[in-house]
Specification:
The chain is mainly alpha-helical. 93% of the residues lie in helices and 0% in strands. The chain has a domain of 60 residues. The protein is built from three helices and no strands.
Amino acid sequence: MSITPIISRLKQWLGLAMVALLLCASVWISSPAIAASDAAEAVDAMQNRAEQDLDRVAGSGTTNQIKGKAQEDLGRVQREVDKATSQVEGAAKQLQGKAQKDIGRTQAAAEEAADAVEGAAKQLQGKAQKDIGRTQAAAEEAADAVEDSTEGFVDSIKDFFNR
């Protein structure tokens, strides 16, 4: 059996299926009173009829082979989409983790710097207080020395005039 008659017969059936589809679509469009469930049933019936005709013309199981191939391809595409989506989500989580780690490092460095500044301020305050204490002690010693020396001077003057 030659392939030419098969192709010719297939063209005839596809043409008839297209005409039937157009007729059904025009009836469906022109009469809005048809319920959605009736339209779905009509579409299902047309699809079943087209599948039967395709199997009769092209050979038994052709419809299932076409559906199976379509499902395989759809599954392959879905798997690739899922893989790409998963990779994007993984990269986003990785960036989020890196950002959080960097924030933690920055906080630690800021706290360290604040502690260092606070320590330096306390050290400077202690040194200033120590220097103030030394100055006060030196001033008190100088005051005591002046007092001692003025008392000695006053005593000398008294002795000089009391003679």
